[in-house]
Amino acid sequence: MAAPVALHLEFGGGAELLFSGQKEHHVTLPSQSEPWDMKQLLVWIQRNLLKERPELFVQGDSVRPGILVLINDADWELMGKLDYQLQDKDNVVFISTLHGG
Amino acid sequence: MAQEVCSLKAQLEEREKEISALKNKLAQLEKKGHGSELKLQNKVEPLSPLSGKPALSNQDIMRYSRQLLLPELGVKGQLNLSKTSVLVVGCGGLGCPLAQYLAAAGIGRLGLLDYDEVELSNLHRQVLHGEENQGQAKALSAAESVQRLNSTVECIPYHLQLTPENALQLIQQYDIVADCSDNVPTRYLVNDACVLSGTPLVSASALRMEGQLTVYNYKGGPCYRCLYPVPPPPETVTNCSDGGVLGVVPGLMGCFQALEVIKIASGQGSSCSQQLLMLDAQDLRFRSIRLRPKQAGCAVCGENPSVTRLIDYEAFCGSAAADKCRKLHLLSNNQRITVQEYKSIVDNSSPHILLDVRPLVEVEICNLPFSLNIPLSSLEDRRSEDIQLLQERVSQLKQQMAGDSQPAVYVLCKQGNDSQKAVQVLEKMSGSEVDSIAVKDICGGLVAWAMKIDPTFPQY
Fold first, then answer.
1. Quick check: A98 and B210 CB within 8 A?
2. Between which residues do disulfide bridges form (chain B) (predicted)?
3. Contact A100 B230 (CB under 8 A)
4. Topology of domain A5-96, per CATH?
5. Closest CB to B292 among A53, A56, A77
6. ipTM value of the model?
7. Dihedral angle at the C-alpha atoms of B237, B241, B242, B243, nearest 10 degrees?
8. Strand partners, B371
9. pTM, full prediction
């Protein structure tokens, strides 16, 4: 059994509006047989945090185009993306790209 | 004799006055950027090569002395700035402070592009434009301001829309491009044109209380498409006229853009390639993120690019290359009424509910009397207090009405998009979650009301 994983989740660039405007969330993923990965985290967020319009956050099994995912201040593309195995105290940021000027 | 001396003295005095007037006139002309006048460009034309300064004049030394003292810049850096041309795409909240600092620092040539005109609602953030410039081309207004600040900078105002047809020809003529635009298609267009012409791109954006900055296509780093290979769904994109923006936020981001442009132009180099700088102005927090490198599979800068010339970016993104609002058409004609029809309903005192579905912050700016405010998001979430409130008002209305007719609910928002969505939600709720109601959308919302019914009603 993998131990529970405590995470610091952050939403920004307007993505927080899908989570009642709350930018920071301290969550604990329950213990499960397999280690938690990003793919499972996205499902967990949809089931537990996402209040409205999931299509504005996810598309297929990933985030929708225009949302950048950062794991511990690095682009998730550098960290294995959906397969990244979450560690206790990881910081995961979902940031919507801005286009205004 | 004495008379002759007097007359000669008078004549001499006269000539001296003339000479002094001529000298003044000459000095003024010379001051005005070597006699060059700003000419607003409506199309892209070839530019003469930018020679830059061979050496600094005494005037230059005095003007730039405080930055010349920096070992990071020095005389060499200053001369490099004078040899560099920068194209500013968008003379708005980002472009104004950017152009201002580039001109002040002594950049050689500044292309200022914007298709739009100055409006009153621009002035809180687009700080190169003044009240007297309303209605004027932004590019010209910005160029005039910048020219007043530093007449030795060559300014070229472009009053045109950047398109796949003209972008490459224009961007090829500049050493660095700064993306200060306000929409997704233009961001992809600018990126692709920069990749195809090998031009570094300093890109920033701002909305509400947040800003982002990255340098693309620079020293082997990623381009915009490496990061965002697929454009966002249009309905997820918020512009400044919908979401709002605090003026100082694009102001800060434009200054950061100026900083990176100056570092690249002077030869110091930017440290923002493959980095994303994010500003959260609410918590005043900066964050610098390490980004992915250039992607081998990128459609434009990858190893086997599929984009080898500019494409139709509005089609690619599914949205227009402007930050103007889109008009939704979700309902049939019998589900909508015009503002004129609604006016006669009010004039006839026909019993109805006017439901304003804008967020509270907008209702506080202005509202029609007797309207009930339930934001669209509360309806979509089926917020129980709000549904209860609506049901109470529907019941009251039913009591006032004779017979079995359905109570009428007219739905209103700013410009008639959200109200259509609300009508769809309410129709689903009608007869189940609330009593049966007849719901209609007021076409064009409060904007139409202000334009066609009540010119004294505020617009925002």
1. yes
2. 317-325
3. no
4. Ubiquitin-like (UB roll) (3.10.20)
5. A77
6. 0.93
7. 80
8. B354
9. 0.85
